[in-house]
Specification:
Largest sheet: 9 strands, mixed
Structural class: alpha/beta
Strand content: 15-25%
Number of helices: 10
Strand order of the largest sheet: 1-9-8-7-6-4-5-3-2
Number of strands: 9
Helix content: 25-40%
Length: 298
């Protein structure tokens, strides 16, 4: 079962059409041809490496923004998007794979969500948007940012830095502050059965009031979100134990009440991983939303 909230009726109809009606496969299939071009680019004094996936008939373009892990370019995810008619630029995270710089993250025992690091990663994403814009060679395609988890803090910052960003899609991304997210994550402690034994009220109490294990200034994505006027879509799994989803949805509703063009979709049976190929609904909803957004602009 799928919950779709705060979406216009027209968008809901488009989703039904896209999910229930057979789309001509020859238009967005591998047989239509996807050109993959390796690219190196500069960001904040270092060289990053990535790949552009360009379908023959693209209706939009995106840059993929990483989560917190030491992730190379998201080639398989990029192929999934490209076969749906979306041009994609995905790159190795700084300090990972063929990209220069230093990876800062939990796997090397450092704090990867300091304001300094998040701003640096946002600069990388903004630089990647400029590169993708140049690679489009005059094609009038809207460029967006698509990301996972930690990208919930990075994407809003990057979007405020770069006016080329026209939309954003955020899979399992927080709207709460970095410190609040850590409090929640430490409380759930990786327990997949957490929600079987805890209430929403209990989780919120700890998220708001637990003592902080890290002493650094919090980054609040709502500061950037309040400054943005571009559309955004968040995709959440209700069983997430990395971010408190219902609190994030409450904050999105508050932003929507201010007139922000933000939508969200809640998947009751999913956890933090909302991009797995064996659960394609979030991906399909994201593609449908991007397509509807592009059509609405014409």
């Amino acid at each position: 079962m799928l919950y779709i909230k705060n979406m216009p009726t027209s968008f809901f109809k488009v989703i039904l059409c896209l999910l229930l009606i057979t789309i001509p496969k020859q238009v967005w299939s591998q047989s239509a041809g996807i050109t993959i071009t390796d690219v190196k680019f500069q960001s904040q004094g270092i060289t990053l490496s990535g790949s552009v996936f360009m379908p023959k008939q693209a209706f939009a373009a995106v840059v993929v923004v990483h989560g917190s892990d030491p992730v190379k370019r998201e080639a398989e995810f990029a192929k999934r998007l490209a076969t749906q008619g979306i041009a994609v630029f995905t790159y190795d995270k700084r300090g990972v794979g063929e990209s220069g710089g230093v990876y800062v993250g939990p796997s090397v025992g450092t704090n990867n969500i300091s304001t300094e690091n998040l701003n640096l990663l946002a600069e990388d994403a903004s630089s990647a948007v400029a590169v993708l814009g140049a690679k489009l060679k005059g094609k009038k395609l809207p460029i967006g940012l698509v990301g996972f988890s930690q990208a919930g803090w990075i994407i809003p910052i990057a979007a405020t830095k770069n006016p080329m960003v026209r939309f954003m899609v955020l899979f399992s991304c927080p709207t709460i502050t970095t410190l609040e997210q850590l409090r929640f994550q430490f409380y759930t402690d990786g327990n997949d059965k957490f929600w079987d034994t805890h209430t929403e009220q209990d989780a919120r109490e700890h998220t708001k009031n637990d003592p902080d294990e890290y002493k650094f200034a919090a980054t609040d994505p709502k500061a950037s979100l309040n400054a943005l006027v571009i559309p955004g879509l968040w995709l959440f799994g209700e069983k997430d134990i990395q971010i408190p989803v219902k609190l994030c949805i409450e904050q999105l509703n508050a932003l929507k009440a201010k007139g922000k063009p933000f939508d969200y979709t809640l998947f009751p049976d999913l956890g933090h991983n909302t991009t797995a190929e064996n659960t394609p609904q979030p991906f399909d909803i994201a593609v449908a939303w991007i397509k509807q957004m592009v059509l609405a602009k014409k």
